[in-house]
Amino acid sequence: MTKPKRPRDPNQLAKMMIDIATGEIDQPEQSPTVQRASKAGMVGGPARAKALTPAQRSEIASIAASARWKQS
Q1: For residues 17 and 39, what is the distance between their CA atoms, to the nearest angstrom?
Q2: Is 6 exposed, middle or buried (0-12, 13-18, 19+ CB in 10 A)?
Q3: Statement: the pTM of the whole predicted model exceeds 0.70
Q4: pLDDT by residue (tens digit) across 1-56?
Q5: Where is the stretch described as Disordered (predicted)?
Q6: Does residue 4 lie in a domain region?
Q7: Secondary structure class of 23 (helix, strand, coil)
Q8: Angstrom distance (rounded) from CA 26 to CA 48
Q9: What is the torsional sign of CA 20, 25, 26, 27?
Q10: How many domains does the chain have?
């Protein structure tokens, strides 16, 4: 199935979104590569968190927080 072209008009776009949500138009399927990557991401994060010690998780979190609050 080909991906339907996205309308530029906001009203037509809203109608298309409603049609997809109600099942009147089928949503385009994702490629197998995208599906595989999505599943890997859902599995990889919790597995990584399980493998890390609390001290390692805390260190990673503090590095991330400092990066978020870093002044440019």
Answers
A1: 25
A2: exposed
A3: no
A4: 566 678 889 999 999 889 888 888 776 677 788 788 888 888 888 888 899 999 99
A5: 25-54
A6: no
A7: coil
A8: 35
A9: negative
A10: 1
